[in-house]
Amino acid sequence: MSPDDPIDDGIRGGSALEIADSLRALIERGGIEVGAALPPVRALADRLAVNRNTVMAAYRQLAQAGLVVSRGRGGTLVAGPERVAQEGYATDSILRDIGTGNPDATLIPPLHPVLPELGRRTVLYGEPVIDRDLEAWATEWMRADLAAGVPFRLTVTSGASDAIERLLAQTLTRDDAVALEDPCFLSSMNTVRLGGYRAVPVPVDGEGMTVAGLEAALAAGVRAVVCTPRAQNPTGASLSATRAAALRAVLADHPYVLVIEDDHFSLLSSRPFHSMIGPTHRRYALVRSVSKFLGPDMCLAVTASDPDTAERLAMRLSPGTIWVSHLLQRLTHALVTDDATRTGIQTAAAHYAARNAAFAERLVDHGIDAAPGDGLNLWVRVAAPARAVAEQLMRRGWLARPGDEFVLSDDAAAFHLRLTVHDLSDADAARLASDLSTAVQAAASKKAG
Length: 449
Fold this sequence. Notes:
Radius of gyration: 24 Å
Helix content: 25-40%
Distance between the termini: 45 Å
Largest sheet: 8 strands, mixed
Family: In the C-terminal section; belongs to the class-I pyridoxal-phosphate-dependent aminotransferase family.
Keywords: Aminotransferase, DNA-binding, Pyridoxal phosphate, Transcription, Transcription regulation, Transferase
Strand content: 5-15%
Low-confidence stretches: none
CATH architecture of the largest domain: 3-Layer(aba) Sandwich
GO molecular function, one term: transaminase activity
Mean pLDDT: 90
Structural class: alpha/beta
Oligomer: single chain
Number of domains: 3
Number of helices: 15
Domain HTH gntR-type: 13-81
InterPro entries: Aminotransferase_I/II_large, HTH_trans_reg/aminotransferase, PyrdxlP-dep_Trfase, PyrdxlP-dep_Trfase_major, Tscrpt_reg_HTH_GntR, WH-like_DNA-bd_sf, WH_DNA-bd_sf
CATH topology of the largest domain: Aspartate Aminotransferase, domain 2
CATH superfamily of the largest domain: Type I PLP-dependent aspartate aminotransferase-like (Major domain)
Order of helices and strands: HHHHEEEHEHEHEEHEHEEHEHHHEHEEEH
């Protein structure tokens, strides 16, 4: 390093936080260009007279904040604006999008039957942040699936991702470790990364989060665990009763680790609910969003958590500032207690299960191993790198989602596609199954050649 190097000259500090802050200041004011390499760990540690681990920790903090990226032997580089994978349509594509992760718009319940009665009362500053009717209904909804006698309080947030972000923020500090399923739901992955926390991957199999993976994560010092008990996204796995009991046994020795269960599919799920939250666990939260069965624009989730966690969460949702609209809360309550809407939700649940099962059968007929899980998507293993298969599908008019977008460390995900097919007609489903078989063969042949 040159003493005249502005990067070298601008880095100060004797702790990881101080070094990270000085580098952050350089990056934010343009003193370091995108793509520039940070000083090697050993060289910077020698100049600052600190331990190498201190510099490594500073670089890790910056990486967790998305400001730098590690390239192994290529060094640590200043990161530029980077596209973050999100759910939803690829709006700039002319291809048939089979990677959206969306519910079927035609199965979202209509709002107009219940709207006329909702606007007759004005809510003022200082009133309770949770609508009384919604609170009563949601209390019974949550109590039915939590261990008997477990105390909890309700919180209403602007969707499940909002709840998880707030739960982690009131529990963790930057660089704390969080156990995430691997492969992982995009929103959870992004929430942890943008929050500056460290994601510790826990493998997922057909019964959900694995016991050995959770044990390893706890041994690594995670302070929070985010789990999807049903319809895990992207795999579709759901916790079995046996697996949930085994996970509860592991967590029994870690009662103060925050366990967040994201039961996003809830009323649409075809699988029974099995919780990893034991009756003596001290810090927990069960989060249920309405976005899958009432529509993504219904940005509302209900969280049942232990009283201490609920108190901390409520402090971030103060009356008069950022409560969830009572109109939205009353609309949610009106819909979930409406007989026609509940019948429509049951119809949608049957539709998703049947269409995914039918498409899985088509794939098996084409020699592709596929089994429907629970949820809106299919997780399909292919006999060639998934990105190569996706490229072949693009040539045939399809836009698929490769599994490596959901990966934390599981290399097997690179051989998976996540497909959203429940809204395809029978003719389109047949064509996609045939095209996928051809695409796998073409990608495998190209790799072999």
